[in-house]
Amino acid sequence: MGLVVLTGAVWFVLWKLMVLVKGAAPPLDALVTCMSLSAQWLLNRKKLDSWYWWIAVDLVSVPLYWSRGLYLISLLYLVFLALCVSGFVAWRRKLVA
User: Fold this and answer.
1) pLDDT digits over 25-67, tens only?
2) CA angle at 47 for the pair 46 and 51, rounded to the nearest 5°
3) DSSP code, position 76
4) Neighbour tally for 53: CB within 10 Å
5) pLDDT at site 48
6) CB 8: neighbour CB atoms within 10 A?
7) Among 5, 61, 77, 81, which residue has the least CB neighbours within 10 Å?
8) In this predicted model, what pLDDT tens digit does every residue of 11-21 receive, in sequence order?
């Protein structure tokens, strides 16, 4: 729960910073950045929850990049989404076994 609160706080600050520098999509860009950092932190600690964060990052990133005309990057994030689901299933099987 603490990570969710910290991510939210950093997201808000980064959002405001991106508004100041006139970013293309400040709230979503800040969200993707903060959630990615949280996901990586959890992944470094080999926590199963990291996959939930990565899946959420991909679910936000695909439409964000598509709406900006970055179709190949959007498709790349669809591939990342499939890899995340696969990684989650594999890790969960290993934990249950």
Assistant:
1) 899 999 999 999 999 999 999 999 999 999 999 999 999 999 9
2) 105
3) H
4) 23
5) 94
6) 12
7) 5
8) 999 999 999 99
Number of domains in the chain: 1
Let me know how long the chain is: 97
Amino acid at 32: V
Q: What is the DSSP letter of 69?
A: T
What average pLDDT does the structure give for the chain?
Answer: 95
For the entire predicted model, the pTM comes to 0.89
Encoded amino acid at 60, one letter = V
Which domain does 79 fall in, by range? 2-96
Cα separation, 8 vs 95, in Å, equals 29
Question: 44 — phi, psi (to 5°)?
Answer: -60, -30
Number of CB atoms found within 10 A of residue 41's CB? 15
Token pair for 94? 């290993």
SS3 68: coil
